[in-house]
Amino acid sequence: MSQVKSSRSLRKVLIANQDHPQAQVLAAECPSRIVLGHITSRWGVLVLVVLLDGTHRFSQLRREIGGVSEKMLAQTLDALAGDGLVLRVAQQVVPPHVEYSLTPLGRQAAERLEVLVDWIEDNFPLIRQAQEAAALQAA
Fold it and tell me: pLDDT for 86-118, tens place per residue?
C-alpha cells in the first residue's frame, strides 16, 4: 500500500517539475485558450474538416470553403500550422505552389470537429425552428 502512495507522490512531483505543465483551458491566462480559438474559429473548423480529405493547395481550399477571404484563409492556415495541426509544404516547382495537409495531431482534432459539423448539419432543421421561435418571441 505504501508503495502505491509513493508512486502517486512521485507522479505529482514529476508533473509539478515538468517544463510544460498540464493545460487548463478554463483558466483565464492559460495559453491553451489561444489554440482553442484557432481550432474552433469558423475558418479553423472548416479548414481542418476539409483537410480530412487529404492534401490541398491553397486555391483548392479557398474554392471548397465558401466565403473565406484569401487573407483569412492565409491567417487561419498560419495559425494552425503554428499549433502543429497543419503541415505546410512549399513545392519547388515553376510556378511555385504550397500544399497543406493535417499532421497526426491535426487529424485527431479534425476527426472530433467532423462529428460536431455532422451533428449541426443533421440537426439544422430543429435549430432553424428554434431560431425562428426565438425571433417571433423577440418581436
Answer: 999 998 888 888 999 999 999 999 999 999 999
- Cell output for 133: 421561435
Q: Which amino acid is at 71?
A: K
| pLDDT on residue 25 | 86
pTM: 0.80
Q: Provide the percentage of residues in the chain whose pLDDT is more than 90.
A: 71
Output the pLDDT for position 1: 46
Question: Is the CB of residue 104 less than 8 Å from the CB of residue 85?
Answer: no
Q: What is the DSSP string of the chain?
A: -HHHHHHHHHHHHHHHT-SSPPP-TTSTT-THHHHHHHHHSHHHHHHHHHHTT--EEHHHHHHHSTT--HHHHHHHHHHHHHTTSEEEEEE-SSS-EEEEEE-HHHHHHHHHHHHHHHHHHHHHHHHHHHHHHHHHHH-
